[in-house]
């Protein structure tokens, strides 16, 4: 029974911290755009690879 006097206030502090963290996330805009991140993986943002041009020899040799 004595441990409940210790554990209940700690649980209330954890719940209060979780609620405060949740409201901070909502107010700072963490949940504003939920669709973009889910669609980002579907589209390739990389540019097309450029073709490499081999350097031509400058001493007149043909390869």
From TrEMBL:
The keyword Transmembrane applies. It comes from Microbulbifer taiwanensis. Keywords: Membrane, Transmembrane, Transmembrane helix. InterPro entries: Cyt_oxidase_maturation_cbb3. Coiled coil: none annotated. The chain crosses the membrane at residues 6-25. This is Cbb3-type cytochrome oxidase assembly protein CcoS. Residues 42-63 are annotated as: Disordered.
